[in-house]
Amino acid sequence: MTHTSSFEIKDSKTFFTEMILPQYEEFLKRNSSGRHALLTIILTYHFYEWVHEKKFTVCDFLRKYPNQNDLAGYFDAARLLTNGTKHFSNKPVTTTTQMGFSSAFHNGFVRSLNIQLPDGSNISADQLIKKMVEFWKERQGNGFI
């Protein structure tokens, strides 16, 4: 998709390389920052709508990517976090902060920022973001964005 507004962001590839990837790198440097986590989640989630030119739904996601059940749940959690942040309500997704380490260390360490998904399971913010960014990197590598 190409458009003529938004400064130098004219297509999905530029949005990804100029907005999402730099924000993700900033998050990785400050992975205990809720601000960096939320900004990265918001950009990465809204990229779905940018690429597909329609709102995200789990059903639509699974139609497009039928083998990505876990990722559909992660994008849905990102949707709830994004809208909850914009509208000051984040139920049914809750977040917690604690002393912890990034996923750059061993996965057995406690994480600083955690997300409880609607199904009651938990994922660290860095793992959720990593999975979403890797999804888009794969799409980019395949020429889909």
The parts where pLDDT drops under 50 for at least 5 residues are none
Distance between the termini: 9 Å
Series of H and E elements: HHHHEEEH
Beta-sheet strand percentage?
Answer: 5-15%
Name the quaternary structure. single chain
Shape: globular
Widest β-sheet, arrangement of strands:
1-2-3
Briefly summarize what is shown:
The chain has 145 residues and is mostly helical. The protein has helices spanning 12-29, 34-52, 58-64, 69-87, 125-141; strands at residues 94-97, 113-116, 122-124. It has one domain (12-141).
Fold topology:
Blueprint: H1 12-29, H2 34-52, H3 58-64, H4 69-87, E1 94-97, E2 113-116, E3 122-124, H5 125-141
Antiparallel strand pairs: 1-2, 2-3
Descriptive account of the structure:
With 145 residues, the protein is mainly α. It has one domain. 55% of the residues lie in helices and 8% in strands. A three-stranded antiparallel sheet has the order 1-2-3. The longest helix has 19 residues. It is globular and about 40 Å long. The mean pLDDT is 85.
List keywords for this structure.
about 140 residues; mainly alpha; 5 helices; 3 strands
